């Protein structure tokens, strides 16, 4: 299995052999010493690095595409460079990774691809998330296309659509705002359950989609947002 660092522990706990990749080598060091996990610094927007990674594997059961970037702003705040960067990280990375690893799954007539999308996508319009939402809508479309094309060849493909998840990335974006205290209040005000989703709750859903218990599930977007979209 190839996975990001934030879900690696959950998969390893279930007995998976995990390769956790990230562009940030310092963050990957947080996983050093955990049984069942090895790490590798990879920029998944770089075709040569992705292809080099794929050559290290004879077979892979689960591919979890989760690299992402959140741009803040409407279409008028989104410059061409912002658009290109977001689409490159959020969509093209999944294209490159799937292109590299899907043939290995097809050779075994078995494989499972999980993509990280978002409720901020074709599911719900969200203020100041123009290019981010566009990219995540594309992820949903990519997921359904892969599922349809390779269903009869033993491949499953699903995506996860979280709402607001309490992560270090989110906390960093809040702190970067001119008024972090107000920014936090704004995030909390839209949580109908009174709290944000935890990373562990998303990890449990990831493990389910990777497991045999979800063997009849493919081509679907799995929403975990505490009812935010309602």
Description:
- It catalyses: (R)-3-hydroxybutanoate + NAD(+) = acetoacetate + NADH + H(+).
- This protein is α/β, with parallel strands linked by helices and 230 residues long.
- It has one domain (2-165, 198-224): NAD(P)-binding Rossmann-like Domain (Rossmann fold), CATH 3.40.50.
- 44% of the residues lie in helices and 17% in strands.
- It has eight helices and nine strands.
- A four-stranded parallel β-sheet has the order 4-5-6-9, with helices on both faces. A three-stranded parallel β-sheet has the order 1-2-3.
- Strand 4, helix 4 and strand 5 form a beta-alpha-beta unit.
- The chain is globular and about 50 Å long.
Instruction: State the end-to-end distance.
Output: 34 Å
| Number of H/I helices | 8
Largest sheet: 4 strands, parallel
**Largest sheet strand order:** 4-5-6-9
Question: How many individual domains?
Answer: 1
How would you state the average pLDDT, rounded? 94
Beta-strand percentage range: 15-25%
User: Which architecture per CATH?
Assistant: 3-Layer(aba) Sandwich
Radius of gyration: 17 Å
Name the shape in a single word: globular
H-E order:
EHEHEHEHEHEEHHEHE
Low-confidence stretches: none
Number of strands: 9
CATH superfamily: NAD(P)-binding Rossmann-like Domain
The level 1 CATH classification is Alpha Beta
Helicity, as a percent range: 40-55%
In CATH terms, what is the fold-level topology?
Answer: Rossmann fold
Which structural class fits the helix and strand makeup? alpha/beta
